[in-house]
Prior knowledge:
The protein is of the alpha/beta class. The protein has helices at residues 19-30, 42-53, 70-84, 108-138, 162-182, 200-203, 207-216, 226-236, and strands at residues 10-14, 34-39, 60-64, 89-92, 144-151, 187-194, 247-250. It has one domain: NAD(P)-binding Rossmann-like Domain (Rossmann fold), CATH 3.40.50.720.
Amino acid sequence: MTLFDLTGRTALITGGNGGLGLSMARGLAKAGANVAVLARNAEKNAAAAAELRGLGAGEVIALACDVGEDDAIEAAVAQTLAAFGRIDACFANAGISGAGTAIPDITADGWDHTMAVNTRGAALVYKHVSRHMIARAKDGDPGGKLIATSSGQSIMGVNRSSDYAASKAALNGLTRAAAFELARYRITANALLFGFYETEITAKADPRFAEWMSRRIPLRRAGDHAGLEGLAVFYASPHSDYITGQCLPVDGGLSIS
Length: 257
């Protein structure tokens, strides 16, 4: 058996059809896990599932799901359990960049939409997944991993990003609360505070932002997506069982610069 073998385990990942989510899903698939991708775009879901099926021995399903809708999450979690019988690791990765407005221009709708996806969406996903994990623990099979995609902006300041920063800071708070509350069931909760990675979201930003970031990051480069594969596998594996309630910057040193 290899050190990080996830054969027989199931990982659910929201927003797993592209960007950081797909990068993490690749690692999970390569490690042998069954993978459930939950995301909105059916075409991207199909492409992601086809790619992931070619990477490992586990099974892959891709389900249409909007994390802004509680009923959609409940249905997708139920479909995942029907397909695989269990969920061992849940990556709450789905998120949006925010409204991009300055503080004097904040609107209630823009603020609420960012919070609904980035914070409430993760909480609702955790609600449904933790119900399964707790029931499994009560039946003598404890354990589970909750891993949130947060951001370095949750602990740093960036212009025109107050709603996004606040949503991710709240996600860090959710992580710590979940870790404390669910520890009795041997369920851990951690957050990964990602720095600058080239994704579809960052591609839409002003090119000067990428240039500014590359100068500010101590390692002088954007994050590499291949490195996220092993990171995801570690947090989904038993080797991270004694790590909980932590918010880990994954940012090339940006948060200390």
